[in-house]
Amino acid sequence: MSDSNKILIYTDGSALGNPGPGGYGIVMKTTDGKLEKKFSKGFKLTTNNRMELMAVIDALKKIKDKSLPVEIYSDSKYVVDAIRQGWIHKWKANRFAKAKNPDLWHEFLKVSDGIHYKIFWVKGHNNHPENEICDRLAVTAAKKEPVHEDTGYEQILKNKDSKLF
Q1: Which of 29, 59, 96, 147 is the most exposed place for a label (fewest CB within 10 A)?
Q2: Which of 12, 58, 107, 150 is catalytic?
Q3: pLDDT, the chain, mean
C-alpha cells in the first residue's frame, strides 16, 4: 500500500425500542480501492448510543496496520462530539463518574491508542452511500440476528436495579 493510503471507516448503530434489540454496521475500505469489507453484529438488549460507539470500537479493533491514517465517519453526534470536543478526556480525568457507557469509552481509549485517526460527522439518512449501507446492516442485525449479549448494558441495568433498595 502506498504512503498516502488511508483506512476509511463508516459506522452506524441501531436499537429497536431503545433499549431493545440492537445492532451495528461497519464498512471499512482503503483509499487505494484494494480493500473493502462489511461487518455487522446484533445484540439482544442494548441502546442506540451503545451500538454507535461499539461499531467504532469494533472497527478499530479490526485494523491490522496501525501505521495507516484512519478516517472514521459516523452519524452519531454523541460519539463524534465526545471525541472531537474532548469530553472523553474530561470523563477520563473524572474516572468516567458522570459519563454514560463508561465501559465502552474505556474500551475506545484502549483500542484507539496508537491509531492516528480523525473522526467526522455525517448526516444520517441523507443518501450518503456508506452510511446507508451501515444503517441497513445495523437494522438487519437488530431485527434478524440479535444473538449476542451486551454484557456492559446488562451490568448497567443490574447496578441500577441494585440501587432500588
Answers
A1: 147
A2: 12
A3: 93
* Cβ contact 29:42 at 8 Å: no
Asked whether the beta carbons of 73 and 9 are under 8 A apart, the reply is: yes
In this model, does residue 37 exceed pLDDT 90?
yes
Given 58, 107, 130, 135, the catalytic residue: 135
DSSP-assigned states of every residue in 115-163: --EEEEE--TTS--HHHHHHHHHHHHHHHH-EEE--HHHHHHHHHHHHT
Active site residue 42: no
Question: What's this model's pTM, rounded to 2 decimal places?
Answer: 0.93
75 counts as catalytic: yes
Bridge partner residues of 25 (DSSP): 12, 40
What CATH class has 7-162? alpha beta
Query: Does residue 130 have an active-site annotation?
Result: no
23, 58, 75, 150: the active-site residue: 75
User: Of 17, 125, 149, 154, which residue is the catalytic one?
Assistant: 125
52 catalytic, yes or no?
Answer: yes
Mind listing the pLDDT tens digit for each residue in 43-53? Answer: 999 999 999 99
Residue 12 has pLDDT above 60, yes or no: yes
Give the domain ranges of the chain.
Answer: 7-162
C-alpha cell at 116: 492516528
